[in-house]
């Protein structure tokens, strides 16, 4: 059984290779075996770098707005270690690049935390796009902020929570912090981007300033857009002309922009995003787990809509950060019901590789994942079945054997070459458990805030 070189999955079959000299130069020194399959590494085009996953700190899946307060229970840990474990988890699955939407809301800590995150990515060896958070509207409630939730909280809970309402830095200060992070970045494997959290959490002035800064600096933007039904309803109230039309009017839409989720986007909005060259990152597991719905990916493709990529959003179908299963889920959700598959395998792999690389600003990257194809095909009777279909039907993270990023062997036989993952995870868990007394004290307040949020949005009308 020869090695297989699958450079254009879904569009062309693998080439059978028997000698290392026939492989790309970056792979020739590796000890590849007969039965291995080599393909371009997939990109996780939207994530949040949870070293401690959300369920582990008690943020149980719920409707998005009710789930968000649970993020307050995220334990206080070393940002380097948190990122090291999160990125290590991805690299062990064969993912060579990730879009990291940083979670800090303290602009004074951004440079130090970003530096720690970039160092973690470098120690592991993956490519990193770092989306620096920008917002100036509080996330408690879309239509009016914390005061809207006050009637649904006890006086004691309100008093305890009111003291946690943040003061947001001026727009100029926030944008300057992003530029400071970018100026400190000297790695060719890291791209710093503007990260407005979402239009519902940004003032018009902030969105317009980001559009201007992106055009002036040529810097990319990565933003959540129209994830949940409640966001759709609120943004329609706030922008009668439509939020996507507003963003276009201010020059926000361009090929430098990627938007995550897009579950509630309408056909006319998808067409406009496509016209402007915007990329749409689909997160099917997260959207199902947080009850936001299913994005119209296949319809968008049929309409000539925006190029799409794939992201895990810190979740995954089995809560395991397995991008291969995420690809399978998206493939099955959007296959359609006709005699011809609505979303072909080639489009799926283009999303995971070519478009994903655009999102992380690494279009020219040549990174490779090595898969144990012998194990995938151990019981097959034919040797000529389309490799892309095999991968989309059976591939999982445990069958990723190797990862090469920028000519560096990052993972070999399922083990990371740059760090001791198990030791890093053990240390991170120890730090998280040391924070348990604080988390246990905060937990009743967080639960109260979640239920107040549910009660508040229950008063809204027009959401099915």
Automatic annotation (TrEMBL):
Protein family (similarity comment): Belongs to the metallo-dependent hydrolases superfamily. ATZ/TRZ family.
The name this protein goes by in its record: Amidohydrolase family protein
GO molecular function: hydrolase activity
InterPro entries to which the protein is assigned, alphabetical: Amidohydro-rel, Metal_Hydrolase, MTA/SAH_deaminase
Ranges where the Amidohydrolase-related domain occurs: 38-362
UniProt keyword annotations, A-Z: Hydrolase
Protein's organism: Rhizobium lusitanum
PANTHER family according to UniProt: AMIDOHYDROLASE-RELATED DOMAIN-CONTAINING PROTEIN (PTHR43794:SF11), AMINOHYDROLASE SSNA-RELATED (PTHR43794)
Keyword Hydrolase: yes
SUPFAM superfamilies the UniProt entry points to: Metallo-dependent hydrolases (SSF51556)
One Pfam short name: Amidohydro_1
Superkingdom in the source lineage: Bacteria
